Amino acid sequence: MTLSIQSVLVGADETRAYGVRLGGALRAGDWVALFGDLGSGKTTLVSGIVEGIHPGARGRSPTYVLVEVYGASPSVVHADLYRIRGSAEFETLGLEDLAREDAIVLIEWADRARDRHPADRLDLSLSYAGEGAREVLAVPHGESWEARVRAGLGGIGHGGGIMRRRSRA
Ligand SMILES: Nc1ncnc2c1ncn2[C@@H]1O[C@H](COP(=O)(O)OP(=O)(O)O)[C@@H](O)[C@H]1O
Ligand SMILES: [Mg+2]
User: Fold this and answer.
1) Beta carbon of 80 within 6 Å of any ligand 1 atom
2) Is 9 in the pocket of ligand 1 (CB under 6 A)?
3) Domain 2-166 has what CATH class?
4) Residue ranges of the domains in the chain?
5) SS3 content of the chain, % helix, strand, coil (to 5)
6) 3-class DSSP state for residue 9?
7) Mean pLDDT, to the nearest integer, of 108-129?
8) What span, in angstroms and rounded, lies between the C-alpha atoms of 18 and 45?
9) pTM for the full model?
């Protein structure tokens, strides 16, 4: 059994605020994989996370590049895998090398390279939740992430978040 946090976010401001809280709890070496359809709020969430790590360094959608890097110590590596053609192309991005250094890695469209993510990571799955709202499910992988989620992880479970145990699939 593991713990996950399900939250309903009403409006883009709540998505950003969730990201800011989470970003404040992240540290160098962290890997966060974001899942969800086009328009589900991944980039909005990432921009909040970047704001939480480096206030003022607003994240934007890396539309024409696959990887954007913000700030330093830790740097924030933001990848968007929407356009990659298979896991082989993922290798060319060098994300594993970047992650080994002083970096926090955030990956949109993580399912485009499902087998390339580290065992220790946080998965964030976004989905539509009716008119003007989104749901985000935060699922920790690895003991360290499980402990951090259990400890509240910057309060992402607050403000409508529901923490619940769920069986590991
Ligand atoms: N919780 C929310 N409720 C309503 N709209 C949201 C929410 N979060 C984000 N949005 C909006 O959804 C749209 C798509 O968001 P975006 O972050 O670009 O999605 P993605 O990167 O997953 O394609 C934007 O207009 C954004 O403002
Ligand atoms: Mg996006």
Assistant:
1) no
2) yes
3) alpha beta
4) 2-166
5) 35, 30, 35
6) strand
7) 94
8) 7
9) 0.92
